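#lab-general

N.A. 3:47 PM
ok so I finally got the sequence cleaned up, no stray characters, all 201 residues accounted for. can someone with queue access submit it? mine expired

B.Y. 3:52 PM
send it over

N.A. 3:53 PM
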Amino acid sequence: MPAQSPPQQQQAPYQPQAPYQQQAPYQQQSPYQQQTQYNPQQGWAEQQQRAYGPQSGMPYQGAYATAPKRQSRMPLIILLVVLVIALGGFAYWAFMGSPPWSGGGSATITMGPFIQAVSDNSSSTRDVTITWETNTDTTGKVEYGADTSYGSSSPWESGDTKKHSVELTGLTPDTRYHYRVINSKNGNEVQSSDYTFSTPQ
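B.Y. 4:20 PM
back already:
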């Protein structure tokens, strides 16, 4: 018998290959996608601040946004104004008397009193001029007499001044007198200590 040839294998039908699938182009994640993925080790507010903070270039207006803290200079300005006013008032009080807002206050004698002049009006009476200075403008007068009860007084000066000059007239010759000066400022009277002088014969 003739030799039989092996059966031929039938080729599988042609199957077209699937079209080439092009990969999508790489898309760079936005700062929000890069930084706001929730990390359990960080708080949400911190991640939001990082995502929208100055480094990301994206403004964040959410509830968790935190603005940089600015220290107010107003308390420092107020303190400086108070110090300037206080120093100005002290300088005024030191050089000019009482501060302008004190309403004047009471006066103090800074110089005197002195017996400035003694004159003979006639053979029977003598005149004496008493001068003194105060730290502020006041009205002054002089009380005088044979003892510390005084008993006589000059008229008040006509106006407020720091340099005072009061003349006592009609004094008895060769007599020792006690006197004191009184200064008045806004209704406040200040009396000096007791002093004495003697009239010439």
